[in-house]
Amino acid sequence: MAQGTAPRIALLPEVVRNQIAAGEVIERPASVVKELVENALDAGAQHLRIDLEEGGAALVRVVDDGVGMGPEDLALAFDAHATSKLREPSDLEHIASLGFRGEALASMGSVARCSILSRPHGAEGAYRIREVGGRRDALCEAGGPVGTTVEVRDLFFNVPARRRFLKRPSTELARCLDVVQRIALAHEGVGFVVTHDGKRVLDVEPGMDLVARIRRIFGAELAGALEPVEARDGSTQLFGYVAPPRFSRRDTARQMWFLNGRPLRDKVLTRIVREAYRGFLEDARQPVVFLRLAVDPASVDVNVHPAKSEVRLREQRRLFGFLVSALREAVARTDMATPGERLLSIRERRHGREGGTPHLPDPGPLGGTRSPEPFQVREVPGRALESSGASGAVSDRDELRPMPPPHAEGERDSGWEAVDDLRGPFLQIARTYLVRALPDGFEVIDQHALHERTTFELLRREVREGEVEIQGLLVPEVVECSRAGVELVREHLDALRRVGIDLAPFGETALAVQGLPARLRHPDPEGLVRDVIEVLERSGKPPGAEEVIEEVLHRAACRSSFMAGDELSPSSIRDLLERARSVGETDQTCPHARPTRVRFTLADLEKAFHRR
Ligand code: ADP
Ligand code: MG
């Protein structure tokens, strides 16, 4: 611009306007797929074929059998803000269609080589219109089936900066598939076929229900392990499936929410899911769920973002409580046992990869940061041992030490047959793991993890029912701590007593422990006081807050549980198993979500020994 001249305002030419708008709606091939598939669904299509080339960057073609467009509509399709779905401002209040802005085709027309071929029901023939980088060709007659075919080739061919921004074809393809998978799960009654460079990569038939779709897309193992959820709160309805914690992943790619039929990703929904799995999942793992939520359309604002995967919900707070409790119930019903077969196959895979690629793309349902060989006789027992003060050395003789069955000699030589699952025989390995026979296999138990989980659940139950039994200490134990620690505890003495911890300030830098929950086996007053202070300091919340109670109870349970390295008698093993049984389903993981038991069925053994 020449110096001294004032800038002149001018309206941007339409092509430029559309290119700018395209920046919002069309980011990559997956956004093209999303827009075209939604258009086909809005047109009432029952069969969709989606052909992709080079991850969608070279071609996205969507063929549908929907209502089609006549020549007058076709002539307008590439115009900005041309839509058949919204006529009046008030229509925005109750949008039932997936699209409504009339931006998508205009955007694509400005940044790719596009064509639409369409023939409405009952029409003699089809028409075609093309638009290449914002330049429109005249409408022409053509041959074609009833329905619509939209082709988008060479996305961003005229916007090199954005074309360079695209990732490798495999990455773009994965994103396209993610879009179609989500949409396909949301739309029973509609069939989807996706091809990539001529190969079929997804195929869902119209008649398949949600589970059948999940099975086809994600496999039978996941589909077979899902637990259904169905709940209602006023006009809000929840329906779907949750997977057992062992299917969790590092990302939220398999968390699929559908709000009134529309797939959406939303931070609040992710938080709801995490909350529902709290205590069943290691931190940093994301559960797998497929959930449909139906709410009154008037209580959702879908107009928040052009990409429309975010919405705004009214009454979020009430919804949060309702969803978390409905989901948590279902999560507790899932089969939380860690199947031994899975561990074996993970081990095999890891061994197979040694020296190969160091990077595992998806560690599978169990993966993550935990010990890669959880089923190994550990020679150096873990952290728990240190605090128990037991000797670290485990001699050869100790490693395999079958325990005598509790029956009288000669009564019955049951060997490894399971007589009654709580009567043994049991085998303690490395003073850390318990093995017991089951009718159809055997089970390995981490004695510390199971004891900790059991104690925690029993304590929590007592706290909930308001009847924690406090065992008074004959001589209060005085624990030195910081001035700030004493002050913090002083504020919350009553709340702490409600969870069974009876403390009293003792001078300015010490606390006297007067009583502890009777449930704790070998309470460790000093450790407990330190835990309480640390948890209070860190959370900044009062001890009545549920997270704080849980954390304090976790730690108390941990400190008073059998440790790795403790030698257990058959009767204490039986006691432990009995108590574990009384807390029910939740005993499959410890409060920190490590597995407490790993189960091997006969089928697992047959696989491991290649009998099958
Ligand atoms: P929107 O979907 O927001 O209305 P689009 O730019 O995606 O805007 O589409 C513009 C219009 O073109 C739609 O409103 C619809 O009338 C028509 N259209 C697009 N795709 C199809 C299709 N596959 N079948 C029938 N009509 C279609
Ligand atoms: Mg649209």
Description:
- By secondary structure, the chain is α+β, with helices and mostly antiparallel strands.
- It folds into 3 domains: 14-204, Histidine kinase-like ATPase, C-terminal domain (Heat Shock Protein 90), CATH 3.30.565; 218-333, Ribosomal Protein S5, domain 2; 337-355 and 376-384 and 421-612, MutL, C-terminal domain, regulatory subdomain (Ribosomal Protein S8, Chain: A, domain 1, 2-Layer Sandwich).
- It is built from 20 helices and 25 strands.
- The strands form 5 sheets. Strands 1, 2, 3, 4, 5, 6, 7, 8 and 9 form a 9-stranded mixed sheet that branches. A 6-stranded mixed sheet has the order 17-25-21-20-19-18. Strands 10-11-14-12-13 form a 5-stranded mixed sheet.
- Helix 1 crosses helix 4, helix 9 runs parallel beside helix 10 (316-333) and helix 14 (447-464) packs across helix 19 (570-583).
- The longest helix is centred in the first third of the chain and has 18 residues, at 169-186.
- It is elongated and about 95 Å long.
- The N and C termini lie far apart (78 Å).
- Mean pLDDT is 80; it is low at 346-419.
- It binds adenosine-5'-diphosphate (ADP) and magnesium ion.
SSE diagram, text form:
Elements lengths: L13 H12 L3 H14 L4 E7 L5 E6 L6 H7 L26 H8 L1 E7 L6 E7 L2 E2 L3 E3 L4 E7 L6 H5 L4 H18 L4 E6 L2 E6 L5 H9 L1 H6 L1 E7 L2 E7 L12 E5 L2 E3 L2 H10 L12 E6 L5 E2 L10 E2 L2 H18 L4 E2 H14 L29 H6 L7 H4 E3 L23 E4 L3 E6 L2 E6 H18 L5 E11 L2 H9 L1 H6 L3 E4 L4 E8 L7 H15 L6 H15 L9 H14 L13 E5 H7 L4
Parallel strand pairs: 1-8, 12-14, 17-25
Antiparallel strand pairs: 1-2, 2-7, 3-4, 3-7, 4-5, 4-6, 8-9, 10-11, 11-14, 12-13, 15-16, 18-19, 19-20, 20-21, 21-25, 22-24, 23-24
